């Protein structure tokens, strides 16, 4: 999810998806701003929608064995997950076969000179902050496994450490967040 007033026009938390086939050199986009992600008609949420009132969301992204497309499922507050849409396999080069990088985390953005908004629930990482839990790699047969802990398999990338932090990744989860307030 993301809080980005310059992109969404408000300071609400939004469900956000992105894709690229070349590190955003000439392909990819966020939410439904270009062709790529294909939403399903009966989806419980659409990329870009506000997450107002949803405190815990569940996300599953996996490559379907039968067609090779990458599917996104969504659920909230402990409910079952349902399809949101998919990224067609034709969008990708190496991802048509397998993923070589997977990212989880938060993102914020603000207009130049404006203070950055909070990330997660605005708390520093800890038991009361935002979390990613039950993180798993899912193989082509649908079997999940917990990624190895930092630094062997998963690493952090925090760009504004005065405003945001992330905990150590362990047992398939991590805490993240911060109050924001950065202007650089």
Automatic annotation (TrEMBL):
<protein>
    <recommendedName>
        <fullName>Neprosin PEP catalytic domain-containing protein</fullName>
    </recommendedName>
</protein>
<feature type="domain" description="Neprosin PEP catalytic">
    <location>
        <begin position="1"/>
        <end position="183"/>
    </location>
</feature>
<dbReference type="Pfam" id="PF03080">
    <property type="entry name" value="Neprosin"/>
</dbReference>
<dbReference type="InterPro" id="IPR053168">
    <property type="entry name" value="Glutamic_endopeptidase"/>
</dbReference>
<dbReference type="InterPro" id="IPR004314">
    <property type="entry name" value="Neprosin"/>
</dbReference>
């Amino acid at each position: 999810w993301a809080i980005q007033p310059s992109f969404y026009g408000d300071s609400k938390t939004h469900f956000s998806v992105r894709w690229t086939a070349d590190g955003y050199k000439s392909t990819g986009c966020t939410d439904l701003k270009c062709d790529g992600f294909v939403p399903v008609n009966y989806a419980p949420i659409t990329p870009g929608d506000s997450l107002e009132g949803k405190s815990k969301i569940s996300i599953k992204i996996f490559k379907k064995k039968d067609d090779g497309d990458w599917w996104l499922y969504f659920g909230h507050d402990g409910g079952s997950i349902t399809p949101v849409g998919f990224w067609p396999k034709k969008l990708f080069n190496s991802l048509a076969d397998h993923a070589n990088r997977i990212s989880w985390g938060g993102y914020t953005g603000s207009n130049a000179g404006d203070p950055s908004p909070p990330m997660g629930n605005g708390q520093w990482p800890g038991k009361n902050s935002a979390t990613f839990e039950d993180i798993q790699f899912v193989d082509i047969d649908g079997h999940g496994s917990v990624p190895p802990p930092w630094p062997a398999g998963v690493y952090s990338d925090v760009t504004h450490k005065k405003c945001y932090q992330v905990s150590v990744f362990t047992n398939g989860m991590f805490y993240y967040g911060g109050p924001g307030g950065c202007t650089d």
